[in-house]
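An instance follows:
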Amino acid sequence: MSKPIHPTALFRLMVLGPLASRTDVGRGEIKRIATELASKPYNIPDSKRTYVSKESILRWYYEWKRGGIEALQPLSRDDKGKTQLPTDVQESIIQLKQDNPARSITTIVNMIERQGLVSKGKLSRSSVHRFLQHHRLSKRLPTSVNTIERRSFVAAHAGDLWQGDVLHGPSVMTELGLRKTYLVSLMDDATRLIVHSAFCLSETALDIEGVLKQAILKRGLPNKLLIDNGPAYRAQSLQTICAFLDIRIVYSKPYEPESKGKLERFHRTFRSQFLNELEPQKIKDLSDLNARLWAWCESVYHMRPHTGLNGESPIERWRKELVHVRHLSPGTIERLDDLFLHRVKRRVKKDASVSWEGRLYEVHHNLVGEDVTLIVDPHAHKIVRAETIFGDHISITPLDRRANARRKRQRPHGAFTTHQQTKSAVEIAYEDYLQNITGFTAIKES
């Protein structure tokens, strides 16, 4: 697999969603959309700020256009946490920001120039911004919220946009007793086809990833994915999968289900035609429930004429649109399983062991104190392989304490020998002392 994507790069791509998902956008419209994006609060990684400037968004957009996701990776700074600003300028910046927290960086720079502390144009905004960030004074006040504009839309072709959402389902019997289920569904916007849907025992990122993988295997790759704004959908593992598969994630606004109106309409149909007709006493377990779900989707929902499709059924429209679907290439198929594996970092303990999900594993003793990455299958709850920070594969096995009790330990050659091949620093100093002071050379021990 390629180099892991930094969380900051994933965050920047998420912010660029409304821009990155557009193919026909003019220069003036780019600035307008960037202004709208800058007015919204965000959960910025490793920062207490909640807003991003329009200039940053525009810079990210053009960098992404030139170099893709790799161009959004943050650059490390050698002078992080340091500043070359004069002491009087530092004190003035802090005072001006504390006097008025809403004061912009541009205003602060202009005021410092008027005070005569720096020459005009010599104080950069980026230096002031980093300085304020270091002192946790860069937070801006939220801007006013504009009236929401709503418009009906439909994707041009199959695969252009998939919508994803979760619906509460019935309870089923499991090994741990009666458990509530959640219906995780993905719909193709242009054809209303349910590319995949499944009842799960939770609504975590892992469940969403499982449904997405099956949908991709059955229906190809979407260009965009419209999903909720909740924590499960913002998981780094899901964002990484979509970034590698070139799927643009578009997050709907919190408490605005209208943005996924087609899938909400499907849920209404599903409640009346499936859940209301379901006979709970005949459901043995989760697999039995999903078997009925898939049978209903393929033989009932996909076959019925849809008013939004001018009387065509979802499967009929999908077949007509197959030429537009982005199919899996042989290379993508080969690495698809690997893309959906999770990466977990661990530090090797002194006894050459690492832990995962309450279980201990052991690696080569030369890796003690080093960071390793466990490549795990979250669905099967097993470690597939382990890698060093350089991507080299390493051997990893479950810890067997009884076998280790009989195992011969490896020790460095000559670790406890008394014969020294070279003189110690003390002996060298002693001989130099005798030579310089008395002219006597110490007799070499035989």
Notes: The mean pLDDT is 84. Residues 205-219 form the longest helix (15 residues).
